[in-house]
Amino acid sequence: MRRICRYLPLLVLLLGSIQLAGAQSLIDPNVGFGAVIDKALTTGIDQNTFLPCSAASGGACSTTPKLNSFALGLGVNLMLWEHFGVGMEAVLQPGKHDYAVLPAIVSQGVVLQSASTLQSRVTFYDFNGIYQPIHTKKATVQVIGGAGGTNMKFYDSQSSSSLLGNSSYSQAISSSNHLNVHAGVGVQVYLNDHMFIRPQLDIHYVPNFSQFGSNMVMQAMVWAGYTIGDRK
């Protein structure tokens, strides 16, 4: 949740712009939940260099999983006109996920490096234009497109047991940022004059997203929100 809070100042700025948008504008703060999906690497990760490796590399090569996890979102849309608007959203994995298990490195009976788990967390954020080709009192169809960024963080997680008890820790070891080009389509269905849900399918194009097997990341979310303004 702390990562979502980093985007709150931008949300507040967009919320404040409603005063400049005119009486006919609508603002839609919303939260979402769903999943982000990407392929696994066809190679593994070398526990010594953290570079891609193959099974022929031996025990130093650990396989990595596909990206297929629960995601939370926070966003706001500002509909300046009946068919056009702007918005922003941030979607993230709320928890850390195991990326690779790194076995202990032992040489001549001496442990050179303890076994550990490499964990990851990914965040997408987008600034979008919105087009509503269909707009009725009960529902709207939204076509969304824009750009933003993707942040990938890695953590080293270790645990141990001894006569003193059990201990564990996790610390951030690296972070990488990528460009993120975003497109999506959703159907915003109103439960009453202001409350809505919006099932939405998205695709993120993330150049050089080498941590997973494809630069194309799929996203399926259900957003729930409240429209501020006079809907006609």
The run of helices and strands is: HHHEEEEEEEEEEEEEE
Helix and strand content put the structural class at mainly beta
End-to-end separation in angstroms reads: 35 Å
Fraction in helix: under 10%
Keywords:
single chain, 232 residues, mainly beta, 8-stranded antiparallel barrel, 3-stranded antiparallel β-sheet, 14 strands, 63% strand, elongated
Structure description:
With 232 residues, the protein is mainly beta. 28% of the residues are buried. 7% of the residues lie in helices and 63% in strands. The radius of gyration is 22 Å and the shape is elongated. The protein has helices at 2-5, 8-16, 18-21; strands at 26-38, 44-46, 52-53, 61-62, 67-79, 84-92, 97-102, 105-107, 110-113, 116-135, 139-162, 165-190, 195-205, 216-226. It starts with a helix and ends in a 6-residue tail after the last strand. The strands form 3 sheets. Strands 1-5-6-10-11-12-13-14 form an 8-stranded antiparallel barrel. Strands 3-2-4 form a 3-stranded antiparallel beta sheet, with no helix packed on it. A two-stranded antiparallel sheet has the order 8-9. It has 3 helices and 14 strands.
What would you say about this model in short?
This protein is mainly β.
Would you spell out the secondary-structure blueprint of this structure?
Layout: H1 2-5, H2 8-16, H3 18-21, E1 26-38, E2 44-46, E3 52-53, E4 61-62, E5 67-79, E6 84-92, E7 97-102, E8 105-107, E9 110-113, E10 116-135, E11 139-162, E12 165-190, E13 195-205, E14 216-226
Antiparallel strand pairs: 1-5, 1-14, 2-3, 2-4, 5-6, 6-10, 7-10, 8-9, 10-11, 11-12, 12-13, 13-14
